[in-house]
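Support reply, case 0932

Customer input (verbatim):
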Amino acid sequence: MKAFVAGATGETGRHIVQELVQRDIPVRAFVRNLDRAREILPHQAELVAGDVLDASSLTDALRDCTTLLCATGARPSLDPTGPYKVDYQGTQNLIQAAQSANIEQFVLVSSLCASEFFHPLNLFWLVLYWKKQAEEALRKSGLTYTIIRPGGLKNEDTPAPIIMRSADSLSEGNIPRQKVARVCVEALFSPDARNKILEIVTNEDAPPRDIAQLFAGVA
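Our regenerated output:
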């Protein structure tokens, strides 16, 4: 296995890279700024410069990788096209490159409530709408996929157990980015995570369960 991580220097992406490195999985981090990446990513990660909006930069970058994890996301800005370009078109470019590279599994970090068009987050240039369109493109691509929809992302890890449900089953809740990363990487090893949309949050009152058990519990 060799993992390719798009959005590797983002708040969630860097945790995915760290989780892969901790498991001794070779990882290629796709970044826009090599200097910044060197400062925040583990030295074991191979760094490749490029941009998901530049489809030509993806072909060589994906060479010899077997899995792809996408943690890209539009940053808050005044650009109304940001979510369309990053969350949808960028993901489309990754999907097409993954098809050409015969990627064995594509793990996409999306968002809770992606199906809710009238959600307040869509006031930010339809960010959830474009995440949903990216999900649909991946589902129709023919690639083996896992779509992770985390709740509100927290930077501090907590011991609270993970709750995992099928698509459009959860509408609120939070989860540490570290746990999102663990779910993403664990999905690479579990047949029960394949071709599913998985919604995840944490809850202190939930019974502790292995991530593999959580995958198996979602139809």
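We compared this against your earlier run and they match. Two observations from our side: The CA atoms of residues 16 and 29 lie 10 Å apart. DSSP finds seven helices and ten strands in the chain. Please reopen the case if you see a mismatch on your end.
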